[in-house]
TrEMBL record:
It is an enzyme of class 2 (transferase). Residues 319-395 are annotated as: Disordered. One of its GO terms (cellular component) is peroxisome. It comes from Zalophus californianus. This is Alanine--glyoxylate aminotransferase. Keywords: Aminotransferase, Pyridoxal phosphate, Transferase. It catalyses: glyoxylate + L-alanine = glycine + pyruvate; L-serine + pyruvate = 3-hydroxypyruvate + L-alanine. Belongs to the class-V pyridoxal-phosphate-dependent aminotransferase family.
Length: 395
């Protein structure tokens, strides 16, 4: 078998071929896994959960393009284009804007690791699992965490936030725009200005909402905004988007201690992404192919927007949430505290699905994909499942 592998190694790269020949000359105690000797088989499935989402053909093609080096000038050009795309979908001019080599959860950690130091007061909107996780990470850093707890489905008013700001005098407030564990939309207008009156930075999670509902980072006074690649943006999971205002950047660059993570140290990441006007130096190997796909996703958002510029309301017409309609996402934009139906994970489920059945009820339900797209009103089953997630964690 191993002689056959050695002969077949000509199809591999020179390093891999050498490894196969070397392994073939020794007695091995572990046989090749039988499953890996078969072709990869992936079901053709319509994805309507919180993410990942189905990929557009153009994004699939990008994933098959030729590899280049992560420090090649062509890769730096792609990274610059990604940065511009993030600035567009975030509606920001922040120079410190980049993609993280990791999921949206990694972007959350990047924000908190760089903004918080031991002893800092941290105010957290905890109306779902993402606020709970932000609080957990803050505690691990050594911050003084003050959760504002809401029942699932609740959102925070300006009065709620001001009471927390006055009481705890935090350096940072965390809010989730689209809480995927409860499906609620958090309003953002006025919250940035309120935080700034109390010398507090505003950090917003838009992983489940970016591209599905409007967000205006600069206009809304958001200091740090992050999102994921795999939801409305329709890119593969594994990369995330983040941007820091000048106020947030000053907080990072005036730290008394180093961030607890070297991998997510924003000073290093700012350099590799060309955000500090210095020659780029190696920090880590970026996921080249994933960045191809992210670039194409952002390009699609920019291109599809041109079809909506004729709408009568200029602010909404120019916002990158609208292309989600062209991708088959429901067009309803929920009001404050309403169910987040315009983004992955905010849909209802088939009538009669049993409580606790989980996403299997969707996967194994009607064969007609249209039957999975019900989003008319709140489902009792979905509400029970959301409460279960908050108690025991997501699926």
């Amino acid at each position: 078998m191993f002689r056959a592998l050695a002969r077949a190694s000509v199809a591999l790269g020179p390093q891999a071929a050498g490894w196969v020949r070397n392994m073939a000359s020794h007695q091995l105690l572990v046989a090749p896994p039988k499953a890996l000797l078969k072709p990869l088989s992936i079901p053709n499935r319509l994805l309507l959960g919180p993410g990942p989402s189905n990929l557009a053909p153009r994004i699939l093609v990008a994933g098959g393009l030729q590899m280049i080096g992560h420090m090649h000038k062509e890769m730096f050009q792609i990274m610059d284009e990604i940065k511009q795309g993030i600035q567009y979908v975030f509606q920001t001019k922040n120079p410190l804007t980049l993609a993280i080599s990791g999921s949206g959860h990694c972007a959350l950690e990047a924000a908190l690791f760089n903004l918080l130091e031991p002893g800092d007061s941290f105010l957290v909107g905890a109306n779902g699992i993402w606020g709970q996780r932000a609080a957990d990470i803050g505690e691990r850093i050594g911050a003084q965490v003050h959760p504002m707890i809401k029942d699932p489905g609740g959102h925070y008013t300006l009065q709620d936030v001001e009471e927390g700001l006055a009481r705890h005098k935090p350096v940072l407030l965390f809010l989730t725009q689209g809480e995927s564990s409860s499906g609620v939309l958090q309003p953002l207008d006025g919250y940035g200005a309120l935080c700034h009156r109390y010398q507090c930075l505003l950090l917003v999670d838009s992983v489940a909402s970016l591209g599905g509902v409007p967000i205006y980072m600069d206009q809304q006074g958001i200091d740090v905004l992050y999102s994921g690649s795999q939801k409305v943006l329709n890119a593969p999971p594994g990369t995330s988007l983040i941007s820091f205002s000048d106020k947030a950047k000053n907080k990072i660059y005036s730290r008394k201690t180093k961030p607890v993570s070297f991998y997510l140290d924003m000073k290093w990441l700012a350099n590799i992404w060309g955000c500090d006007d210095q020659p780029r130096i190696y920090h880590h190997t970026t996921p080249v192919i994933s960045l191809y796909s992210l670039r194409e996703s952002l390009a699609l958002m920019a291109e599809q927007m041109r079809a909506f510029l004729r709408l009568s309301r200029p602010r909404e017409a120019s916002h990158p949430a609208l292309p989600c309609r062209a991708r088959g996402v429901p067009s309803a934009h929920p009001g404050p505290g309403e169910e987040l139906e315009a983004a992955p994970g905010g849909h209802g489920v088939p009538a009669g699905a049993p409580a606790g059945a989980g996403p299997a009820a969707l996967r194994e339900g009607p064969s007609d994909p249209a039957a999975h797209c019900h989003h008319g009103g709140r489902s009792h089953w979905l509400q029970l499942e959301r409460h279960r997630q908050l108690r025991h964690g997501p699926f």
